[in-house]
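Lab notebook, page 48
Experiment: co-folding of the full assembly
Goal: obtain a model of how the components sit together before planning crosslinking
Operator: M.T.
Materials (sequences as entered):
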Amino acid sequence: MAEPLFTPEEQKKFDAGIAEIISHYPPDRKSAGMLPALRVLQEIKGWLPPEGLRLVAKSLEVTPERAYEVASFYVMYHLKKPGKYVIDVCTNLSCSLWGAEKMLAYLEEKLGLKAGEANEKFTLRETECLASCGTAPCLQINEDHHESLTRAKLDAILAKLS
Amino acid sequence: MTATAKTIDPIISAAWGKPQSWTLDSYKKRGGYEGLKKALEMQPAAIIDEVKKSNLRGRGGAGFPTGLKWSFVPKDSPKPKYLAVNGDESEPGTFKDRYILEDDPHMMLEGIAIASYALGVHTCYVYLRGEFKFPAERCQAAIDEAYKAGIFGKKMLGKDFELNCYLVRGAGAYICGEETALLESLEGKKGWPRLKPPFPAVVGLFGSPTVVNNVETLASVPHVFTGGSDWYAKLGTDKSGGTRLVCLSGSVNRPGVYEVSMFTTLAELIYDDKFGRGMPAGRKVKAVIPGGSSAPVLGADELDVAMEFEALKVKQTMAGSGGVIVMDDSTCMVRSLWRVARFYAEESCGQCTPCREGTPWQTRLLRKIEEGRGEPGDIEMLSNVASSIAPYPPIGLGNTICALGDAAALPTHSFLMRYKDEFEAHIREHRCPFGDKPWGSFGDWS
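Observation: model returned without errors.
Model output:
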């Protein structure tokens, strides 16, 4: 037997999450909960394993293909296990005008990763505008937002990641 | 610059930065939910008329009159009606809704309550872009407070009117800011825009009549009722009432979100002490994008224009989502356009061929020119590719289901119209004339 996807505690969290989500939609529209349901799964497992996608699909009464279609459309869902820290660096116009390209180059050198690459600890990605253009440059680490970044500030943030 | 702008007291941003401004307590102390109380004493049709008279126009990009949009919802539909709040703020250069959600979410919630009561909506979904973790936390806390205070839930301030409000986070897709893609996403699907008509007001979420309004639009609604529609309309121009938030970024001394009058010009926004405080030392403006990265760019001699829908339309550009991006005279226009083009290539949903194929094609051509590999004919090709997605001018001739096609082509057309010599120089010199410093005064990071 393969190991179950969830520990009992995770299973509880998943079931409660799905029940809450479904209650937000009309009874015949369970499938509308796809985005929040995938988020629940990702919050528990750190990514979207295939058997998890099947469970989400089953809970929302759709096919697994449908869950995969949605999961592969949106960039915040991880279909592969990412590094412990996912660093999304905005390099769009306003951020580039405040040094984002140079900041990304610095991160690439410091982490030994090119944008788009990952190791066990870090996934480094270029991302699109994070709606923080007045406090550029900015990035997100596991969805936590950091703005008005200088080298010193970034070093201090990275130093805290164990 | 002289302060010729009609000065206004901020109404949307008045409490930003003040202690606990995001709480119900703070909002109520400032007269919060008084507009809702007034609206609840009116007939729903009269509420919609009041919003029409206020000349409030949508703040999400298209500038459609809000009251008119509300009036398209059929009164006699047997189906439930929905309100969907567009908080997918993703247009590069735009970061105003983030501040409303973080610093004064109840202002938007009051607008939601008024709109729902007027439209007979009993379920509202607030759709926020997935990256808005902190704004979503603040917004959810405010929704919880509103339930506890008897604003949402079974009764609305004691009146027999049920409203449930749910927050939904997206998952990283610019296209979901397009209203029909947003509805698809709310239905649990990938964000592929729908053909219009039918418009969402008739066939929207779950096939039911649905109004989709931007965060700032809804945050503006309470003021129409506290101050009255006459007062609100008179703050603005004949066709556009109220104040608006503009987001200033790029090569300027003090970037940020500023609440301005509809008469404030781009030049005032950039140079005035109340706003941008001018250009970095020794630098001049080269280019300004006035309404988010999809809005056609303006040159340094075109800044004496009010940041208002009609005035910018005359210039063949748009007020859009209020994202003003400034580039100084040491910024490379090819590099800048390449960066913008990459965004649209990345965010094209892939549904329509001109956009799916055209946006990466633009990007490849721009990279080639920027890296010094450009050849004679590349500029013409670039222009042709952009025209195949959407010809210009005027705005709105796109060959695609949604406006992302136009959004992707307009920057190309307008950069080529105004800065063609820079593109030619790249090809002639087989290099970027700006070398390794293409990003202007603040482009060096330290």
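Interpretation: The domain at 243-328 of chain B is CATH 3.10.20.600 (Ubiquitin-like (UB roll)).
Next step: discuss with group before ordering constructs.
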